[in-house]
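G.,

No rush on this.
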Amino acid sequence: MTAPCLAHIVRHPIKSLGYQEIERAALTRGRPLAFDRVWALATTAAGFGDDAVDWAPKMRFVRGAVQGSLQAVQIRLNDADGSLTLTHPLRPDFTGTLPQDAAALVDWVRPLWPATRPAPDRLVTRADGLAFGDVPDPYLSVLSLTTNRILGQRMGRDLSIHRWRGNLWLDGLAPWEEFDLVGRDLRIGTARLRVEERITRCVATTFDPQSGRQAGDTLAALENAWGHTDFGVYARVIESGDIFLSDKVTILT
């Protein structure tokens, strides 16, 4: 049987505001993917008085589960100078550098956010330099192209991988095999990761990341066919190393 390989590496520099595919990454022990969810937009109800804050639940931030059209934001970040561009079908492009242009970014997002919700207020980073993931642990998410394809067939549509906001996509796993990896280690490139838990999903995954419109109830499909709403797994980097697209993935005991 052919070993699985690394098919996509994806980062999301601003929580819930876009995705960017990259060709390589340096993974660091005990840390998430570099530049993944390193920023987030706090709302006026978040209660943050500083721009560097502790991890907090996602309810304090602008997020796709509240406004699904945010799923259609795309982002391009230049690692060298920190400049970035955000695009959305309903907005002119935003170009700037963070954190210097944080106020302009907040203004750009406001028309996309429901007027009935606490408004986007300020750009924040984590005081410890980690990611604004949905859980406080410094995880990367690992997902399977096979499982995505099977779910899409069940729903009668092609599902973009970017619905799931995953980091590492593996090709060549058996259906749902990623769940069997919990408690096991993976060798990808020169890095080693330990798979720790399954990921339970939210309504944001029901929105198409190209149009920003609701397009297929992923949660109902998962629940009806498999009795859960989990998709993908969380993994922790336990040995630093470099990963590249097409790297072989070795499942360790």
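When you get to it, here's the other one too:
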Amino acid sequence: MTKAPSVWIVVLNWNGKTDTLDCLRSLRELRYPERRIVVVDNGSTDESVAALRPLASDGSVELIELSANLGYAGGNNLGIRHALERGAEFILV
């Protein structure tokens, strides 16, 4: 049997704690066996990071915490680079 391709999902967050947590709840329901989720926090000031850390510690997502907002492209590019360095075959932004 052929192994399913590795798909990484990059979620960018900036002061969107509620929406990001809702998004992650939905993404964790995916049953695709080779999926990984990485959240890039783009320097949030709304307690997003505190809410996301438990998800990172339980292994359901990877969290990249930035001290400054790199903008949409900068944050996503960082998440994409992170996924590629870890063997992503496909990336969903």
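The chain has a mean pLDDT of 96. The radius of gyration is 13 Å.

Enjoy the weekend,
O.
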